[in-house]
Hints:
CATH superfamily of the largest domain in chain A: Zn peptidases
Oligomer: homodimer
Structural class of chain A: alpha+beta
Number of domains of chain A: 2
Shape of chain A: globular
Helix content of chain A: 25-40%
Number of strands of chain A: 19
Mean pLDDT of chain A: 94
Amino acid sequence: MIALDADAMARELAEFAAIPSVSALPEHRADVARAAAWAAERLARAGVTEVEVVDTGGHPAVLGRWGPPDAPAVLIYGHYDVQPADPLDAWETPPFSPTVRDGRMYGRGTSDDKGPIVCALAGIEALLRGPRPPVDVQLKFLLEGEEEIGSPHLPALVARERDRLACALAISADGGMWRASEPSLNISAKGLANVEVEVVTAAADLHSGRHGGAVPNALHALAEVVAGLHRPDGSVAVAGFYDRVRPPTEGQRRELAALPFSEADYRAEVGVEALVGEAGYTALERLWLRPTLDVVGMWGGFVQEGMKTVIPARAHAKISCRLVPDQEPEEIQRLLCAHLEGHSPRGARVIARPVPGTARPYALPADYPPLALASQVLERTLGGRTLLVRMGGTLPMAELVQRELGARTLFFSFSVSDERYHAPNEFFRLERLAPGAQAWYDLLAGIGPALAAARA
Amino acid sequence: MIALDADAMARELAEFAAIPSVSALPEHRADVARAAAWAAERLARAGVTEVEVVDTGGHPAVLGRWGPPDAPAVLIYGHYDVQPADPLDAWETPPFSPTVRDGRMYGRGTSDDKGPIVCALAGIEALLRGPRPPVDVQLKFLLEGEEEIGSPHLPALVARERDRLACALAISADGGMWRASEPSLNISAKGLANVEVEVVTAAADLHSGRHGGAVPNALHALAEVVAGLHRPDGSVAVAGFYDRVRPPTEGQRRELAALPFSEADYRAEVGVEALVGEAGYTALERLWLRPTLDVVGMWGGFVQEGMKTVIPARAHAKISCRLVPDQEPEEIQRLLCAHLEGHSPRGARVIARPVPGTARPYALPADYPPLALASQVLERTLGGRTLLVRMGGTLPMAELVQRELGARTLFFSFSVSDERYHAPNEFFRLERLAPGAQAWYDLLAGIGPALAAARA
Lengths: 456, 456
């Protein structure tokens, strides 16, 4: 076991998570840059020798390198940007004043992805500390600041820095474990395709008394369009949406059915009265193997306190699709826009636009040798049996690394999926800091032989 | 013809409309009080002798009186509160900086109802100016500051001041003419019943990647609920909604069909591509004789710039119903709340609450004698033939005056229904200021005999 100061790690996480690095909001641009500078300084302090904050055209990225240039390389990935914190009034303590309660640190980004990055860097600092580090690979680093907005500038950066980032394997500090009760490794990530919709029914808002009963209402039209996005059986009603989706194999269905998963526990965990979704699939199959469509925001008309008796002329929605192999994000955006514009209710004009920042789905073969090493390391540091699971979250970098660098990605994160990523009162379990750092140490110390086995 | 200074009237309207007396928004409370003080001062300057700003428990009202206490009384009504101005960026000039373009004054409240009040007060000032005013009735005044929020405190005020407000007839400066091309008198007003809805699906917003496909989405549920408020034939789907509605008589249908009304012109006027609504009725019948339901605001999830991939746990809507005789607003609120809560989609809890500030529908008999006088006065001052029309707008005071004071209400307003009440770029036609004042002068000078005829 290496010597780790968990309190110092917690203080470090509090400092990192206090930076409101919200990549989606222009007013936080300087904060994302501040988080990049923080990460670069931390990498250098860990002993990484070639650290650079690089311009991407959007929010900056941080690159780094350590070790003999002719050794096989491992590329370590994470992101220091975070989701917006709204609704603010739902937070028990302010999102950017990290607060410890009952062994958990509450704050936006503590779990996604700053806590897991702190684990990785503490482990790497311990690894590089002595005169002869027990690691026989090169370490490369790619930390980005646009993950939460779909990494719009990452593809160009990776293409431009292809030589500098070349690697035999990427290891991601992003991703998250399935549950707190046992270790797990993600072997797949969904893709992402977003669309924005506007519905226009009149030149201006109209008085509901003067014109009610004769003129179209943009909110009624939008509700009809949104209600029509799913069929009564819960499937997505967009023509062609499932065309490239492979049905689950019997093996996959058995594998998922064998996992310890209780729908009642899951309902209680997320606080819902009933599970919904596509008929004919179990909840785990819908979560992990099936593509989904969710309206993430919708608005129009008078939304303040009080009443305004108006027939709204415009209404808006933002739609997000989670994709599985072999769906293509741009094709899904095209199909969805065509569906929306082709289902304009009478008197309404529906305008749909693809939102930049797509991600392709990704999957890792279950028999990939570094998975076995990672499983053992997790069992040694966290206890319990490591489960191989799938997750609905998007990891655009994995598909990108595969395409541009020809390398696979191992998801090795110490956050847990119940830690309210993207929601109010996000938290990170502080008890995972030291084991997480130990696990990164052990994984990197043993990764050379595992990569040799993968090549064999 | 009386001597009137139209420029001075326009300056006066600009001053009145510059007060942002938005009754729906708490931050404008002092502005509504300022508009009350302005109106009280103006009444006194017009020669009204007993003017008082009275507390209502909400926004203040202004009362006034002039003339021999034993003469029959006419109660003059108007309101100095205005609708909220949002969306602000849709205004060509700021809503509370009244601006004249092409003979129109643009600004929130210029048409609803400050311009029409300026007409009435200029006419009354001329009437009371000389030593022997040519009027043989008492004049009473009731100007309120809560019309745009459904007059929540007016019933208690009128009940408390029943003796002071007792009258043979009320004349409202609120209401608006049908079109600019010929004079018209409204003989009916719709009632109002508002409801607020909240949909809850989970304890907190959830990550759309982690949970998409298995958990309910509050926006999907709200869209389904809203889409279900109308049947495919355009009728309102709420059980019992039409139970008390009298079908239009053959006479009413002939009367409406005979009015000069072009659906194409109306579509162009309001800027819509198609008319919609309840099947089996003409557009005028739907506008004037049929009750309606409109969602006036709807929101939930991430509504800022950018994307947040979240499954919203809560969604909201505000619903407004326009009622016809003999619908009861509280009953409609009950039916609508029951419908909403009874149609909760799977996994969603729908909570519906009545919004205070209802209004009952109102209608004036077409053969009521003061209508004939008002028709003649309008034809003399504006030219053209006066049409008797119905309007969808709500005038809660008319039903209240009938109930509490046993008097009918004549709607005598110089605004026109195309003047964008409740919408951006509301305006008032300045050419109506002087004729409007003259018409008020003529109407009040002749009202004594008309009231005698009505009593006979």
